[in-house]
Amino acid sequence: MYSQKVMENFANPKNVGVIEDADGIGTVGNPTCGDIMKMYLKIENDVITDAKFQTFGCAAAIASSSMATQMIKGKTIDEALTITNRQVIEALEGLPPKKIHCSVLAEEAIKLAIEDYRSKKKT
Ligand code: FES
What is the largest CA-CA distance in the chain? Predict the structure, then answer.
């Protein structure tokens, strides 16, 4: 059912954890399955220097978080905002149709964490 890449990122996820002094935090959930993803970003001069996540969810959600955090590290926030769940799925070498929504959580969590960073910067 899952690709090798999904299995690797589920069995050995990268960037699991919390950033205590995160510059931006995004929390999203899917009301249908009840899964929750929380993304923490460390941002310096609009560049994402670190990203970590906590995901209380299925294998596809954990693999998507792991892949998405690897994809955004070192990127500017504008670049990170262009990352779509489709790109996360491609990097994972595919997800089953029923698991597409799991990758959407990763895209949304990144966007919310960046929004959070931007709103804090203004104040
Ligand atoms: Fe809902 Fe995977 S089943 S995030």
Answer: 47
Whether the pLDDT of residue 122 is over 90: the answer is no
4-122 carries CATH number 3.90.1010.10: yes
102 assigned to active site: yes
**pLDDT, position 117:** 98
HSE value, Cβ hemisphere, 13 Å, CA-based, for 99: 19
- What residue type is assigned to position 27 of the chain? T
Contact present, 27 and 57 (Cβ < 8 Å) = no
Q: Which ligand 1 atom is nearest residue 102's CA?
A: 4
Torsion of CA 53, 65, 85, 115, to 10 degrees: 10
The per-residue pLDDT for range 59-93, each reduced to its tens digit, is 999 999 999 999 999 999 999 999 999 999 999 99
Name the residue ranges covered by the structural domains of the chain: 4-122
Q: Which two tokens stand for residue 24?
A: 């931006």
Q: Is the CB of 63 under 6 A from ligand 1?
A: no
- On the CB side of 104, CA atoms within 13 Å amount to 10
